[in-house]
Amino acid sequence: MLSVIISLLQTTAAQGRCDVNYPVGWRDNMTLTLSDGESRTFGLFIPTTYNDDASKSFPLILDFHGRGGSSAGQFNNSRFFANKAGSAYMVAYPQGCNAAWQGASYANRSCNDTLFATELVDHLAYVYCVDRSRVYASGKSNGGGFVDVLGCSGGEVSGRFAALAMGAPALYADNAVTACNNTSPIPILQVHGRNDTTISFTGGDGLGGTSPDILTWTHWWAVRDGCKNDTAPTVTHGAANVTNTTYTCSNRTVTQLAIDGMGHCWPADAINTDYEKQGAAVCPLGVLDFTQVAVDFFAKWRLN
User: Fold this and answer.
1) 33 in Cβ contact with 3 (< 8 Å)
2) What tens digit of pLDDT does each residue of 202-224 get?
3) Dist. CA 63–CA 120, nearest whole Å
4) CA distance from start to end of the chain
5) Is the pLDDT at 12 greater than 50, yes or no?
């Protein structure tokens, strides 16, 4: 196992070594020791161009798997590495304790996932040439719900991320507009299938708690990001039964993509982990490439 130990003296102000070469491509089972003494693992994709120019820093995505998933499974689910623009991002794939994340009742409460996420960002930015103004988080299902937890944590937690993207998120910890503690606006992108029987589009009880109605939750985030309560979204209907609901306020965007006929999936153009596990009837290919949409969304935003 490749072990990478973080020093307790490292801070968010520390700068990565842009003049050091590293093996490119995918590596799994990397280890990070947190400030609380806990040891956590993650996978990491380093762009093939990483060693070409020591003056170039790279954007970073933390991409979280769903309940029962793995770093490698999410690597092959979102497939940023196979996307032309996405392959230019450094992408970390954290592994959840007992394959689950904070925010759901089934999560391991002895694990501090928020600490893991924040210290992983700091560690990667210390070791590698990371552009701290372009750090993002994405996730599927329980992992997407944890991305929402990060956004709602406020302060130095959500302040590490320039934008968030969630695929079919399990939003068990976010059941009211006041449930969120975000202290500054953050752009939000979310996609959900209307035929999702795991995390219902209209909300309700699930394996890890009660989730909100997705369009209601989208409105909550719009209000959190500076919209007035009576602000109306822009709603457009695209090809392949995709409905786009977008709020734009305080120079921030909250976008929800609803897909008719889609189940509990990370929508894709090519075979991914969700397609392999659930098949074409639940996760049809070619309806929407959410990885491309997420990369395009991330490219619009950076921290000041």
Assistant:
1) no
2) 999 999 999 999 999 999 999 99
3) 12
4) 37
5) no
